[in-house]
């Protein structure tokens, strides 16, 4: 037993001595000055001094390298400009009429979609008295004049109903479309909006244009429905009465009424146009420009391609992330979503809808809605979307079935008035329902006012990266220069009508009801604008053409565009240069020293893996020792300072390996 223990101790001492000899050889031949000085020192004090210096240098190196790595990862970026580094890509173009609907909507709605007219009838004659009484009693909103209250009721009704058949059809808004000298009227997709009703997005079939000539770009002739011949509903002596003061009633035409009810007062008649990247959701309220009625605008498009750097503080991805936005409501009120490429501004919409849902318990129709949000759930009476403005839901709460009421009264206004009086007299229960509805609307409107504040918390969280959202590393930004002139000239009106407007409004002969192939018939829009005699000759008012049409011509400024490339403030090679400087500063270590350390580690691990101890080889000279590769090297002093007796010279205590 004792012999075994002695053997184990002897083997352990042998291994320690082998390790010591290996380290001695490394210290002897290394280019790291701290270790070589420690090896060459003759006294214990000098060895301790150089060991302390080496350890301090090692600690300083680790701290400095950590700081350097953090600075490299979070380093600011610089923008480099590549002239003509990419081809111009034609953007998507979204257009909306500033007059969301024409007066013919009323008649078309009466014939094909009676629920539209019935809805307005119920709002006007049934809900109005209840709303009026509730406003007087609870004083929730700052709309004291009844005309403003009436405007709000109509907006409520629009918010909870599909707008597809209220706004412009594509063949009404776009009279002529030419892109790259080819007809492009089939390249539009519908996008419904509570402000503009029906907007349309042009998606070009070919985006890389090879020329900057205006005729090869996008040419649009648009009808905006700003005025009709008699400016009233066709075939009806229709007027809307403002009831703010019964003693001094103001009568206005239907078109004035629609414009006042549906349009913000500061925007002129014309067309809203927004340029945006391919398959991106257009920010109709925050971006774009307006071209007024009776104007021709030549728009020169410029593009800058931005290529971001994917780094920790602002990550991005190579492929376009996707997001689904509500684009329309079908006939049953069910939401229709469409896929778009994610944009940084989408984050703001998400935060706004989240705050509305949290504080008001409902969804705003005035803020774009994403499909993957929890608010896309039933909230009120099984509605598909719990809109804050939902007068249809309120009608059901009051027990007023619009279609059933209209059917029962059979067009007798007196019966309808009696029903409205009964609704008021059924009293406090109805008032409480309306009050609850108005409080929800008031919460919605108050919060929307706060959204415009630049210090609004949710916008701050979005812009500051409160939630890390990934966007594409490559983006195109578009800028435009508009050249606008009054249009059309008097001498050009006849040519425009005969070559552009009337051919677009002509009913195809195959679609004529009587099958008369020689008969020429035009769609109702043509009769809203022009008079026709028995011979089919047209008569037009010059001002009517000017007030109803807008011409746009869009083309790129240059075929090759600049690229803004984001790069780190210093490259990886500069970082490696600083790395070498840090190691050299604190340790006196070069690239050769790094290789020596790697070699030393490999030698140790190889020996441990083989399970063999390093054997001592005595040199012929008393002051030499065989190195790890058999070369004759100077004898290394002992590194284990604890084994050196005090006061004894190192040379006397050095053991040959």
UniProtKB/TrEMBL annotation:
One of its GO terms (molecular function) is ligand-gated sodium channel activity. Its main location: membrane. It is a multi-pass membrane protein. The chain crosses the membrane at residues 48-67. One of its GO terms (cellular component) is plasma membrane. It is found in: Membrane. Keywords: Ion channel, Ion transport, Membrane, Sodium, Sodium channel, Sodium transport, Transmembrane, Transmembrane helix, Transport. Belongs to the amiloride-sensitive sodium channel (TC 1.A.6) family. This is Uncharacterized protein. It comes from Macrostomum lignano. The lineage of its organism: Eukaryota, Metazoa, Spiralia, Lophotrochozoa, Platyhelminthes.
